[in-house]
Amino acid sequence: MALLTFKGGVHPPEHKELSNRIPIRDATVPKQVVIPLQQHIGAPTKCLVEIGQEVKKGEVIGEPTGFVSAPVHASVSGKVVAIKDVPNAMGRMVPSVIIENDGKEEWTQLEDHPDYMKLSPEKLREKIQKAGIVGMGGAAFPTHVKLSPPKEKPIDIVIINGAECEPYLTADHRVMVENPKEVIEGLKIIMKILGVQKGYVGIENNKPDAIEKMKEAASGEPNIEVVALQVKYPQGAEKMLIKAITDREVPAGGLPMDVGVVVQNVGTAFAIYEACRYGKPLIERVVTVTGLGVSSPGNLRARIGTPVGDLINECGGFSNGPMKVILGGPMMGFAQFTLDVPVTKGTSGVLVLSEKEYVPSEKYGPCIRCGRCIDVCPMGLMPSMLSILSEKEFFEDTKEYNLFDCFECGTCTYVCPSKRPIVQLIRLAKSLVKR
User: Do 250 and 392 fall within a single domain?
Assistant: First the structure.
């Protein structure tokens, strides 16, 4: 039987063997954490603490200022020593709280619920909102918003995204291998909140151990199915995953809820379980530290606010002439100019490229109209035209080519023989054009 997939896409070298067999371990808790008050799409949070204030682990330090927002919590106990602007993964300066760790690991009071599945959907959603859970695959969209679809858009399918199609990254893979029951419980909670009877877990076929473990964990659940997907990038993008598993197509400019589907990441499902069962806020996450430029690649459970440089040191430091540090994967991640950038809720990986892996930026040429970018675009767009119009500063004209349907996966740039920075030009147009 053919594996499920979508039209288009590419197959870059995976390099997952560097860390996919290495169990998750706890990273050393830093002496000081830097916690950005904006770690999600939507309204920023309002700072609730002052310099000199003592805080406990799990205490709310940033309060949401709108519905599309999520609270931010202290990841250590200690004293607030500064509140200042700090660069995030994309280089933007964001207000952040710096906490000096006192080493006591003293928790704020949590609301434990051993019989969490007996709670009402409203109460479960409230626990998720209070825990500050956002999409942990990179988008960082507040989860409680996704779990509050309008009545005119009923949901009948929930998909847990275990594709992890980005090269190098293996954090979700290890979570599925080591915590499969918790991920399935997270899926069951989502299904209860939405009143859904059918759930899927989609996993690329290059993770046979994860598929086996997840099938074992779901064996007693007749409404949950674990499906193997063809190994192809960007298989893990929401719209591609929905097409592969359900054969439903999200309309141009639409959302998954328009076709009755909600998609959540593996890490998000695990965090949802911990929030509903133990009342635990999102103060840590699994991060893959990998690449030939780091001595001992691995998967670390790191506190939010841990400097990226600390994680690299935890994995033996640099080796093989490191050339570039990227937060995320090589296709959609962002290159860093400092190692002081902190881990946030959306940080899935720290990739250190060595001299062997690093391809220096070449002078790009004109578009030769070969059509390769059009062939591989998973959204069926014309990236060549979008990039040309952006390059010539005809930004408004890009809207005629469905500019905002592009989710910046980078497949077009990957295949371009002229080495054109297509996705960067599209990103420029999106930043200058109003929807």
Answer: no
Q: Do 148 and 273 sit in the same domain of this protein?
A: yes
258 and 378 fall within a common domain: no
Number of domains in the chain: 2
Q: What CATH number does the domain containing 165 carry?
A: 3.40.50.11540
Alpha carbon distance 389, 380 (integer Å) = 18
Residue 253 has a CB neighbour count (10 Å cut-off) of 10
Its domain, for residue 427, covers: 372-432
Q: What are phi and psi of 150, to 5 degrees?
A: -65, 155
Q: Are residues 132 and 259 in the same domain?
A: yes
Residue 92: which residues within 8 A CB-CB, separation 6 or more? none
The rounded distance, in Å, linking the Cα atoms of 196 and 4 is 22
SS3 content of the chain, % helix, strand, coil (to 5): 30, 25, 50
Name the strand (E) or helix (H) holding 173: helix 171-178
pTM, 2 dp: 0.95
Distance CA 147, CA 144 (A): 5
Our separate counts of H helices and E strands in the chain read 12, 17
Q: In angstroms, rounded to a whole number, what is the distance separating the alpha carbons of residues 94 and 244?
A: 37
- Same domain, residue pair 268 and 411: no
User: How does pLDDT run along the chain (435 residues), one tens digit per residue?
Assistant: 457 778 889 999 999 999 999 999 999 999 999 999 999 988 889 999 999 999 999 999 999 998 999 999 999 999 999 999 999 988 889 999 999 999 999 999 999 999 999 999 999 999 999 999 999 987 789 999 999 999 999 999 999 999 999 999 999 999 999 999 999 999 999 999 999 999 999 999 999 999 999 999 999 899 999 999 999 999 999 999 999 999 999 998 899 999 999 999 999 999 999 999 999 999 999 999 999 999 999 999 999 999 999 999 999 999 988 899 999 999 999 999 999 999 999 999 999 999 888 877 778 999 999 999 999 999 999 999 999 999 999 999 999 999 999 999 999 999 999 999 999 999 999 999 987
140 and 255 share one domain = yes
The residue among 235, 258, 278 that closes a domain is 278
**What does the DSSP assignment read for 193-251?**
HHT-SEEEEEEETT-HHHHHHHHHHTTT-TTEEEEEE---BTTTSHHHHHHHHH---PP
Q: How far apart are CA 84 and CA 95, in angstroms?
A: 5
Is residue 139 assigned to a domain? Answer: yes
Distance CA 432, CA 435 (A): 10
User: Is 129 in the same domain as 259?
Assistant: yes
295 falls within a domain:
no
Q: Which of 229, 248, 278 is the last residue of a domain?
A: 278
